TrEMBL record:
GO cellular component: plasma membrane
Membrane topology type: Multi-pass membrane protein
Name assigned to this protein: MFS transporter
Source taxon at top rank: Bacteria
Membrane listed as a keyword: yes
Residues passing through the membrane, by range: 32-55, 61-78, 99-117, 123-142, 163-184, 190-211, 237-254, 274-291, 303-323, 335-357, 366-387, 399-416
Primary site of residence: membrane
Length: 419
């Protein structure tokens, strides 16, 4: 059995409707698309084998103060999410292959450096390198998958969202397997986990150096400046960013509002890992089926709208249950309902938003727009998370913060561009 067959079975036995001429989506993908989707799986395995354990390593292993641990983690997020737009511009200018290869080299160096870093300056340098590496190869992979998905759709194989659903499912599969691998490696030490993560990216680097074409047919390289001005003038794209940012803000509550709710209900955060696992498994097992269902019935705008409404319903479930003050297993049920509805909404929103970008971007600027989608949405999450933290600490009635969070995705529905 080939690695491709194993991956296909892991994501689901069928990727299209039965008895359809478009049966077996994976088999119809080009070798380039298969390479990029498997790359997303490998990226996340290597990344999540290390990063979930970084805070514990910095605090306990190295002895950093709590505020410094938070600062380092924030720097990693900024160097990754905030610089996506830079990575996107580099992809448009130099092409996918060189940007991915450089990103892999930087990620290998960053993980190896982090494994041996003990001084604060050394930790900060390695973490910045790790984040910037992702800001290079993630826009490269995502933008080319989106462009190839449009070609796949134009060839009559089905909706482009099916290809992007495979990308999302691959990422979630990696996010699920990575921490399990990291937990096993931590039985040795944190350095071993870092070196194993670097090893994953060595394999990715070798695979891309051998299999990634020097020039991808149809990919236009842009040398003219002024791309950022085009993005800022593109009102329809910025509206999409705001709507997508409301989803990311909701998703960020898995790390902000949900832990508080779980601790209130059970007295500890032990159950939190099970809820995270539930979210990842739902995406791995159901993403392709949900996307297939939506692709047969909804256009991109309606798919995003349905997803945002499901996300709002998840917050509303917790808001409705909070006045009852349930604890124990019963108290966890609203939190589980929020996770399920949020994840279902995510499965509709993410492929639709990524599939929409090529329609809104100028010729040759898809890398820039893919990176800008993440960067602009990241700014929205940064501002929104600060406001959410203030709401949670304001001593308001228990349901109010959750109702406010439910209102955010609803309010962005009217901003979604008309096709």
């Amino acid at each position: 059995m080939t690695a491709t067959d194993v991956f296909t079975r892991f994501l689901g036995r069928r990727t299209t409707t039965p008895k359809s001429p478009r049966e077996h989506t994976w088999r119809h993908l080009s070798p380039l698309l298969k390479l990029l989707i498997l790359t997303q799986l490998a990226f996340n395995i290597g990344f999540f084998a290390v990063l979930p354990f970084l805070a514990e390593h910095l605090g306990t292993g190295i002895g950093m103060a709590g505020w410094m641990v938070g600062f380092v983690l924030g720097l990693r997020t900024f160097s990754q999410q905030g610089l996506f737009v830079v990575g996107g511009m580099l992809v448009d200018r130099y092409g996918v292959r060189p940007v991915v290869l450089v990103g892999c080299v930087l990620r290998i160096a960053g993980f190896a450096w982090l494994g041996f870093a003990e001084a604060t300056w050394s930790v900060i340098g390695s973490v910045l390198l790790i984040g910037f590496a992702a800001a290079l190869f993630s826009p490269a992979v995502e933008s080319e998958v989106a462009r190839q998905a449009v070609v796949w759709e134009e060839e009559g194989h089905g909706s482009r969202t099916r290809v992007l659903a495979l990308l999302s499912a691959a990422g979630q599969a990696g996010a699920f397997v990575g921490p399990l691998l990291g937990a096993l490696l931590l039985a040795v030490d944190f350095r071993t986990a870092c070196l194993a993560g670097a090893g994953v990216f060595v394999l990715v680097l070798a695979g891309h150096a051998r299999l990634m074409p020097q020039h991808i047919p149809g990919r236009v390289r842009v040398t003219e400046k002024g791309g950022l001005r085009l993005v800022l003038r593109n009102r329809r794209f910025l509206a999409l960013c705001v709507a997508y940012g409301s989803y990311l803000l909701a998703y960020n509550q898995l790390y902000l509002a949900l832990p508080d709710e779980v601790e209130r209900a059970t007295g500890s955060q032990t159950s939190l890992s099970w809820l995270f696992a539930l979210s990842s498994l739902l995406v791995v097992c159901a993403q392709l089926r949900v996307t297939r269902w939506a692709g047969d019935r909804l256009d991109l705008r309606r798919s995003m709208a349905a997803g945002l409404l499901l996300i709002a319903a998840g917050f509303a479930v917790v808001a409705a249950a909070r006045p009852a003050g349930w604890t124990g297993l019963a108290g966890l049920l609203p939190a589980a309902g929020y996770v399920v509805l949020l994840t279902l909404g995510q499965m509709l929103v993410v492929p639709a938003a990524r599939a929409w970008v090529p329609d809104l971007a100028e010729e040759g600027r898809i890398g820039l727009y893919t990176g800008a989608l993440s960067s602009v949405s990241g700014v929205i999450v940064l501002v929104g998370s600060s406001a959410t933290g203030s709401l949670l600490d304001a001593g308001l009635p228990a349901a109010v913060p959750w109702l406010a969070l439910a209102a955010v995705p609803v309010m962005t529905l009217g901003l979604l561009p008309r096709r």
